[in-house]
Amino acid sequence: MKFDEEVVVLYHPNPSGGIIINGGGAPYDVLRLDGSCATLSSEEVTLKRPPAPKHPPVPWQRLDPRTREVLLSDPAVAEASGNYDEGCAPDKVPACAKAGGKLTSAILDFMARGGKIPRLATMR
Fold this sequence. Notes:
Layout: E1 8-11, E2 28-31, E3 37-40, H1 65-72, H2 75-87, H3 93-112
Antiparallel strand pairs: 1-2, 2-3
Helix pairs in contact: 2-3
């Protein structure tokens, strides 16, 4: 994980009594935007949005075809996907990383604007 990475909190127990050992708060189970999960301590989580949140790259090639189809209906995602495909030739490693970052940003922007992806979307 990266410092200032934005995640989705899946679970945070709210103890209703008892003793907390070692002074630490209850752990947070979080989902990263690349689909991987992590458990973070309360000291590692803040509800304050970072100035420029970081995100892991979306694994575009491993997304379910139905998910990619819905995402490609957005013009910005479609353009970023074309640039990603073009920039990710074997001899263009730096260009591929940059194009992957732009594709991830376009996907997150689509979702932030209320874009919906298929409910049963999975990664292959």
